[in-house]
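This part of the workshop introduces the protein records we will be handling. A record pairs a protein's sequence with a compact description of its fold. Backbone structure tokens are a discrete shorthand for how the chain folds in space. The question running through the whole workshop is how a given chain folds. The record below serves as our worked example for the rest of this section.
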Amino acid sequence: MLFLVLAYLGGVLTILSPCILPVLPFVFARSDQPFLRSGLPLLLGMIAAFGATATLAAVGGGWAVQANQYGRWAAIVLLALFGATLLFPQLSDRLTRPLVAAGGWLSQRASGAEGGGARMLSSFLLGIATGMLWAPCAGPILGLVLTGAALQGASVKTTILLLAYAAGAASSLAAALLIGGRIFGAMKRSLGASEWIRKLLGIAVLGGVVAIALGLDTGILARLSSSRTNNVEQSLLGRFGASGSGAAQLSALPADAAADSRAIGDLPVEGELPSLNGAVEWLNSPPLTAAGLRGKVVLVDFWTYSCINCLRSLPYIRAWADKYRDQGLVVIGVHAPEFAFEKNVANVKTAVSDLGITYPVAVDNDYAIWRAFNNQYWPAHYFIDAQGKIRYHHFGEGEYAQSERVIQQLLAEAGHAGVTHDIVNAHAEGAQLQADTAQMQSPETYVGYARASDFSSEGGQVHDRAHAYVLPSSLALNQWGLGGNWQVKGEKAVLDSGVGRIAYRFHARDLHLVLGPGAQGKPVHFRILIDGQPPGADHGSDVDAQGEGTVTEERLYQLIRQKDASADHLFEIEFLSPGAEAFAFTFG
């Protein structure tokens, strides 16, 4: 219920965002008509279309995206026709004849007033079209709901949350419509110029259609705003505890987070091993099934290859797979992508090979297995006994000895003789070395605007177009900024031209950055500095002592590994050619 209220309040705040501006001409175009017969049906149509379109978008997948785009263009055509009817009354008469005829029937059923039904129906249809255009325009609260829906599947609860968001925005628009209607009415009465007002509205509507068709509604208009609206929404998220059940928790957990500390002797049944169907491809194995795994002890590891927490758990997963393979253990890695590039099966195959993973990996691009487990975290480990029962789980890093004892107990229960009771000492190096949690004071930080925080370049992030950024003269701990001509997108920043820089003041032993070479795949050379100097002995595994390195593929790059992590440091990276893509900072 609390999240439902939060979604509604988030919708109310939409009126403060410039991305709603293209919708307003369509609303005010009917401000001189009775609210109940014209304005209210329009708003109801917007709510219905918004809920349906956003729910469709939440399903994810190419077919949904295409349907949404076709619907968007159909709505643009419809609204363009509406604008033309305002400019040319003769066209309006011809186009509305079917609606007038239908309205005669509707009026007898609904209002009893001739013509009212046609007005209501036409307003409702225009509301549907407007809602389809409005659906892509939303803030962090809607993004949170859609993200949860994308990973757990569209549901009645998701649709209710989306409708609550839409109802909140419609409430704001209704208030604007009522106030605007009085203003418009006074203008028409005092000036006696209804025709030129009608034509101006038609021009405004067509202008809005052109802006939307060119993508300016989510581009220029979004950039005209300050970040205050988003900040208010983000504050609401924090105040109302948006991490509740209203959406999936998409998290890469740090060491020992949410650790299960039950005694090994007490392993209750937590559920059945769900279906493993839905993977787009299986690596290192033919497709596995729950029925086919009966009699085996199974460890299911949800991971993604650029997740630092997942990488640090891999040495233990590999060691268990090797140690207990001949004693009845089957390890299954379920690769559930976080970033778009992790959906590329070729990228996953390369990562699996580079990371030395030889056990079966299900490429879960559609989150089918993720949803079947009702999983919410990277990494997440589920332990299944020989009867197909889930007996234990662990989220995040850490407690590896306890997890291994669970494996030993389940193997013993399955009747496997000679199960060893020693604990592996997993060898790890590079990014897979365990974090220095005692010194780590910097959190995972996303670069794309969808989840960015603590960005400190003057003017904030400009969305979806190239912009010249200037690095801040100073940065507080965990603040960062851009320098150069960057295009900031939802999940990444792309160096558009020339030389570009990123600076971050951090406190940790290790600093990693998820990078890609850009759409063309051309390698991008870079150099790093720490406190203005080459890293020397404090360089990471992907750079040399002079701080030189090259982005050749989309993955996590280890850039800093210090011997002394007891102080704050200023990290800087300079990309020497355009195309570089930066996704997220992580620390260790």
